[in-house]
Design a protein that fits this description.
Low-confidence stretches: 16-25, 109-120, 131-149, 206-216
Distance between the termini: 33 Å
Order of helices and strands: HHEHEHHHEHEHH
Oligomer: single chain
Number of domains: 1
Strand order of the largest sheet: 1-4
Strand content: under 5%
Mean pLDDT: 74
Structural class: mainly alpha
Largest sheet: 2 strands, antiparallel
Radius of gyration: 17 Å
């Protein structure tokens, strides 16, 4: 197994851990909630809030003046703060391995079991045509605990060149793009309803009808 395969398997393992940590108690699977800038808003010490509650709390923190809106600079400042929090090595680069270490606090003790299972699955796939080519897109997809759907990871999605690393410049550029997609009226400000559109990107669609909004 290549190094990048192991990292992808590890991130998939963490995704399954967060999902299963809630489900093994007889509750429905929990889908990890992240802010638009990749901050974990559920799991571990944060518990399992609804997406609307978690995103609402994040929005209130950014809207320190209680104006009911968040401007672009505040949003990008939050992205810079979050990148610094995730950059555990202090080298200005986020890799899947670093992201796994950062998110470990929001998972539970079943990680070892899940890691073994994920690596076994990865070894089974290793002989399949196109496996190596798919690794980059897998790293962008996994890590959100929404493992049964093709949901991009909010951090690794900034890796536009599929190098399995995200620089501070990459991350801030991506944050600007996310802000523009959320700012549906293009006024340069996010309202609470606009910010909550992020829930459409990271939580399952209704079982019948409706679907996700088309901005992501």
């Amino acid at each position: 197994m290549t190094a990048s395969s192991r990292l992808c398997a590890a991130l998939l393992s963490l995704a399954l851990v967060v999902a299963c940590s809630h489900a093994h108690k007889g509750n429905p699977p929990h889908y990890a909630i992240f802010s638009p800038n990749g901050e974990p808003l559920s799991g571990g010490p944060l518990g399992f809030p609804t997406c609307e509650a978690a995103l609402g709390g994040w929005f209130d923190r950014l809207d320190g003046a209680h104006r009911g809106t968040v401007n672009r600079e505040s949003f990008l400042a939050d992205a810079r703060r979050q990148f610094k929090a995730m950059d555990l090595n202090g080298d200005g680069i986020i890799t899947p391995e670093v992201l796994l270490r950062y998110r470990a606090a929001y998972a539970t003790g079943v990680a070892v079991q899940r890691t073994a299972a994920a690596e076994d699955a990865d070894r089974d796939k290793a002989g399949q045509p196109g496996h190596e080519k798919a690794q980059g897109s897998t790293a962008r997809r996994v890590g959100t605990a929404n493992v049964d759907r093709d949901v991009p990871d909010p951090v690794m999605s900034a890796d536009a060149s599929l190098r399995l690393k995200v620089t501070a410049a990459d991350f801030e550029r991506h944050a600007g793009q996310v802000f523009d997609r959320l700012d549906t009226n293009h006024h340069g400000l996010l309202s609470r309803p606009e910010a909550l559109l992020w829930c459409n990107a990271i939580t399952p669609p209704p079982p019948s009808g409706g679907g996700w909004l088309g901005i992501f």
